[in-house]
Amino acid sequence: MVSMLRVCLVLYLTLVVGIFADNATPPPIKKVTAKPTEAPKTTTTSPSPSPTTTPVASNGNETIGNASLSNTTQVNTTVTSTTLATTSTTKAMVAPLPAKGAAEEEHHSSMTIFFVLSVIALCVLIIHVLLKFNFTYLPESIAIVIVGTILGGILKLFSSYGIGNWQSEEAFDPTMFFLILLPPIIFESGYNLHKGNFFQNFGSILVFAVIGTFISAMIIGGGVYLLGLAQVAYKLSLVESFAFGSLISAVDPVATLAIFHALDVDPVLYMLVFGESVLNDAVSIVLTTTVLELASPSASAMSGAEAFFSTVWRFCSMFVASAVIGTAFGLVSAMLLKFVDLRKTPSLEFGLMLVFSYLPYGLAEGLKLSGIMAILFAGIVMSHYTHLNLSPVTQITTQQTFRTVAFMAETCVFAYLGLAISSYSHIVKPSFVIWSIVLCLVGRACNIFPLSFVMNYFREHKITRKNQFIMWFSGLRGAIAFALSLHLEFTSEVRHVLLTTTLIIVLFTLMVLGGATLPLLKLLKAEKRKKTKPGRELNLSKTKEMGDTIDTDHLSELTDMEDEVNYVKPHLKGFMKIDAKYLVPFLTRRLTKEELRDGTNQMKTLTNQWYQEVRAVPSEDEEDEEMQNLTAQEIR
Amino acid sequence: MVSMLRVCLVLYLTLVVGIFADNATPPPIKKVTAKPTEAPKTTTTSPSPSPTTTPVASNGNETIGNASLSNTTQVNTTVTSTTLATTSTTKAMVAPLPAKGAAEEEHHSSMTIFFVLSVIALCVLIIHVLLKFNFTYLPESIAIVIVGTILGGILKLFSSYGIGNWQSEEAFDPTMFFLILLPPIIFESGYNLHKGNFFQNFGSILVFAVIGTFISAMIIGGGVYLLGLAQVAYKLSLVESFAFGSLISAVDPVATLAIFHALDVDPVLYMLVFGESVLNDAVSIVLTTTVLELASPSASAMSGAEAFFSTVWRFCSMFVASAVIGTAFGLVSAMLLKFVDLRKTPSLEFGLMLVFSYLPYGLAEGLKLSGIMAILFAGIVMSHYTHLNLSPVTQITTQQTFRTVAFMAETCVFAYLGLAISSYSHIVKPSFVIWSIVLCLVGRACNIFPLSFVMNYFREHKITRKNQFIMWFSGLRGAIAFALSLHLEFTSEVRHVLLTTTLIIVLFTLMVLGGATLPLLKLLKAEKRKKTKPGRELNLSKTKEMGDTIDTDHLSELTDMEDEVNYVKPHLKGFMKIDAKYLVPFLTRRLTKEELRDGTNQMKTLTNQWYQEVRAVPSEDEEDEEMQNLTAQEIR
């Protein structure tokens, strides 16, 4: 028996011998006693001037013999234990063992997740109540921010009485925001985007997003700097001013979507605001990073013109590369699901969809491009091509899951904005805050009105005065700006001032401008748009909209199209024509009759299954009996 | 204009004044220049003997003025920045700003996610190929481990030639495993569990899981210790031996499920092995932590008997409390979805399901109980009650999503096991490894055979000799043991030895025992079970099983029941009776006829939508036309 085992073992070891062999010799061992109190001392004695500039560089150290150094608790497992690594570098390229205290950390993270999920559950119920009592004048996003604020206050109260300590649970973590919360929101908006409108207005959107945001950043950054010099407001350095101007210039897609989505606004207006808000994020990120780089000593040798062109070049390459990555992943997913028939294994099919919905974001962010742009384009391409290659079950699952996850992520974002009021320490500079808000409004005015004026020369569908006004008014700032402000690397006081100011501007635009959007629209509508359908009321709830349109989503898209520029029916032009003639046939699958029948039957079986399981009202009358028979017949 | 804004601002500030007020005064600012190279020095000078035993304690420090300390890159944002906090504690209860370098860390994490998702996509395709060519003799789990091994080797090769550095991407992170990968796997298995069989065999499962695991741990721990003393194998201290014995004794649910799920084994056998593997995880965790605690100086005053009773007491309370938490959350979700009608807003409905599927895990782990037990019970309760309160769309979405996420998590786990071979540095002690494997087999034999013998006195459905043999044989160790071994806090050499040994045992049981399970079953079956249905072949693919049974899952459960002890039809007994008579009516909703019709119509509309969108083969013959008309009629 033992010999057989040995043989097996040797065989397996041979398989991986190349990997094992060079590690099999025990490295020099330094016995470090693992008592936690000794850890800091050990840190002090360690000679490590470990290179800290690039994160990859410090990974080369082997941590055999010094794992106990990382004993200072709350150190996140894999990653951090290398940072304090001493000089016993026997081999590179090997991952360190997790730091001690990792198990403890785990319990803490569990509690954080529990907290977040509880907040989401609470918000779900509150939204349900809002919907049920038709309390449509309070947008969901604002309701959730208020919930977050109140919750933050309560936790603060608890903490001050010593009941629990929640400050790490309630803190808004920008990494979590960018990696977990933002991608599903943007992907979902791309997936359910009205593609026709988006691409028809692509030129205008681009102009607003790029030139407009640049104008706004210049005005806010310059304004803040000059006001600081003039001693009117808090004094910031040139770099700090423009970094702040850049990050606060981007209109936020999350906030804007939440307010606009369900409004019965002019679809072109919606598309302009939405498109701008998605694309200008990239602009804002590039501007902010560029400003910060210009401040670094290595870049100060550059002349102004050089800096300008480098910024422009960076933006263009970032924009194009991100879009290409997103589009490429979308196309690959369509091809894969066309030729690899996964419809018999829905788990694999849906799994592939989930993977492909995040892949472009991961790659683009990893390459320091704009993940948000990549995922937007991936969403658009996937809904246009890949969606058609899915089995009906996976179609439903995909759509529902993306929607739900996006909804949950949005809820999180707004709740965290509310919580941020009490979870960070703030330095309020009233004059700075007020002037910043004024500059934001002025900057946005200088973006929208002149550019609209110019673009109306080229547009068929002019941007009316009223729409311009709404566009100006709806310049909501949101979580992206706030997350960027958390990432600024200035001195502590400046960080806190900018953080606080950004948070106040975000909340102000969300509460005041966002809250006033519905009344404003009503006012404008009363004068102008009479042709709104009588049955459809204004409705600020995106969630309800989701429920209502669950079964008519793609259909409604068609009817919307007919309302407008009807490019579908008589003559397709440009890209649309190529798309319908070549791309769609190339990228989507042609189903045989059998496959169609399979799909339909599968759905029927599922329906029947539900029907059978569910507890119905006892069948007193015949009608019910009859219906049951009917369903049973249909299935056979 | 400005005055209006000021008014709004003041109003809002008043709202949150209690929170802002005490933070408005700027804290004493210590200007620390943010040059990265200075960071280690600063760490050295910091006097912080920050208490490292409890992670919460060190959170009270405010990091204003010292955020640059955490500048050592790769530090995970929110959590870690407190650990290096200096003594400038001006205010407690406030979250620190993210450490600098957080934005950099984000790009790195993105790349990690991209890497993981790419691996999953690759595995999906490989599994598809395996299924397509009906290559059923290689279990999917083993295939994926091999993929992981090969991938690890390739990355190693790349790294050694200096092409990229992947060691943090490919490292198995136990925190990620316990927080993200394990919960969906266990929840899904609970959700799709054959509840009748599970509860009928609950007594036996409990005995195997608790007493059996305890026996096994004692034998392995004692054996390893004695062999060490006798200089036969690597020498471990008493604590280290028993810690190792405890963590390696737990049979792994993930590995076992992956191998067993689709096998057409005796359902009772399946349930015994599965049930044991889920519950003994809790036992193993409690044993391991208890052993480690006994080693700490504070506990050494306890006598042997005290320690024993404290262990027993801890286990019982942990077991009961975890199960109660899981059950409670399940029941709450059922009640919520019964009384709160979310069927018009599927996003909210599905969101609530997602939240409730994770909440019990978060709470149980946060309270240092067994999250895995809590989530198992929540899954069981939710599939039994909550599932019936869902709209058909959400039912489908829920089931598909849970399955897919569980599948993806499993894929990750196995891929990481393969990658772990090359991502950690190993110290192989051949004699220790071989003796450990022998002791594992002996320990499991001492668990299964005597306990089965005893229990057969009490069981109606006896455990046959053959089933006992299969149970012994199928004691696969898996990722839980490996993750626990990563969390051990011994000296570095011992850690590496135990890590390596655990990994080899895991791979050995998975590859050799797991791989031999199918031939073994065939051998045994050829002799004995003739009554297997002719149409159904042995199939090691869980994924294919998923696809096949997608529409008959809950129905098949009923038919299975009839096969066996048929407690459903003639007379329900015990809990089953109470359940059917009181609990189900209490916890599930009675649908009105209208609601039934709505549900059916919703599904029809969705089917139709798919039918309309999809590109069908051009309708040449009439049959197709006919079918289209038929479908159209049905929908009207």
UniProtKB/TrEMBL annotation, chains A, B:
Residues 124-522 form the Cation/H+ exchanger transmembrane domain. Residues 1-21 form the signal peptide. Residues 30-58 have a biased composition (Low complexity). Residues 28-71, 617-636 are annotated as: Disordered. InterPro entries: Cation/H_exchanger_CPA1 (IPR018422), Cation/H_exchanger_TM (IPR006153), NaH_exchanger (IPR004709). GO terms for cellular component: Golgi membrane. The keyword Metal-binding does not apply. It is found in: Golgi apparatus membrane. GO terms for molecular function: potassium:proton antiporter activity; sodium:proton antiporter activity. PANTHER family: SODIUM/HYDROGEN EXCHANGER, SODIUM_HYDROGEN EXCHANGER 8. NCBIfam families: b_cpa1. This is Sodium/hydrogen exchanger. It comes from Lingula anatina (Brachiopod). The gene is LOC106152425.
